[in-house]
Recover the amino acids of this structure.
């Protein structure tokens, strides 16, 4: 998130000095993107989204990552309809909590999976409908009890490994799981934790499906207009307080090593945000 410093010749766009979010996510496939770890960048005005005054810098600069991921998973990748059930792992993660908020807003019934008993009450207090703890509960049995004869046909997984396999197994026939993360292995260095063992019978006879989602690849295939439309939807949801983004922890770029160390810490809490101070506004990000 930053302020418009200047407009190119014959360029129409936001006003000079206006706060904007730039969708400068490295796209795969796509041309090289300079990124945002810098004081100034040249951006396509078609990828600039104005930021309303009621949005903080911290919330604005996170719009194009976790909140956008949650929206795309629920409404685009799986097209979950009101009244349908959605099963998700890592419910206590930032994306997981955003999915809970969005599902409550859309009338979707959630089945949330966590790994710690202490997280169950946290998720219920946050608005989770049904919470399963893999520490001391059988995921398959609890999903069957919760979903009943109709079962659940849509799921998102951010864990992979054996838990991802259990989610796939718990789906009803013709069910689909979208995998968008692998939290079962830090930095994705453990091959066993990255593997999701699937039963061929479920794939063949129950025609279940598993596929992946990566935000960078979505940006590489979406048109600038589509990307900006999705981002504007997220902006409205956050501005209207349907979605709540945890405040980040600001760091000057000179402390990048400390910021990266925090980002690499499991269960770190607040996300590190690089801040480039400006004479006009000391909170420009």
């Amino acid at each position: 998130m930053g302020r418009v410093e200047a407009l190119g010749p014959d360029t129409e766009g936001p006003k000079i000095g206006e706060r904007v979010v730039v969708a400068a996510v490295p796209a795969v496939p796509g041309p090289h993107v300079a990124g945002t770890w810098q004081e100034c960048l040249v951006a396509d005005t078609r990828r600039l989204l104005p930021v309303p005054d009621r949005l903080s810098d911290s919330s604005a600069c996170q719009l194009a990552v976790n909140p956008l991921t949650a929206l795309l998973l629920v409404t685009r990748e799986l097209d979950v309809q009101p009244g349908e059930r959605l099963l998700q792992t890592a419910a206590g993660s930032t994306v997981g909590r955003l999915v809970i908020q969005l599902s409550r807003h859309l009338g979707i019934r959630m089945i949330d999976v966590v790994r710690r008993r202490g997280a169950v009450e946290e998720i219920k207090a946050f608005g989770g409908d049904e919470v399963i703890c893999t520490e001391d509960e059988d995921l398959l049995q609890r999903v069957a009890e919760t979903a009943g004869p109709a079962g659940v046909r849509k799921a998102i997984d951010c864990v992979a490994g054996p838990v991802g396999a259990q989610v796939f197994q718990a789906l009803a026939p013709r069910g689909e799981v979208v995998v968008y993360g692998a939290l079962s292995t830090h930095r994705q260095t453990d091959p066993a934790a990255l593997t999701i063992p699937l039963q061929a019978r479920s794939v063949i006879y129950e025609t279940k499906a598993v596929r992946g989602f990566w935000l960078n690849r979505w940006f590489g295939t979406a048109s600038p207009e589509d990307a900006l439309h999705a981002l504007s939807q997220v902006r409205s949801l956050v501005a209207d307080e349907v979605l709540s983004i945890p405040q980040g922890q600001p760091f000057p770029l000179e402390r990048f090593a400390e910021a990266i160390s925090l980002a690499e810490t499991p269960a770190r809490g607040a996300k590190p945000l690089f801040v480039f101070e400006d004479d006009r506004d000391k909170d420009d990000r």
Observations:
- The first strand starts at residue 2 and ends at 3.
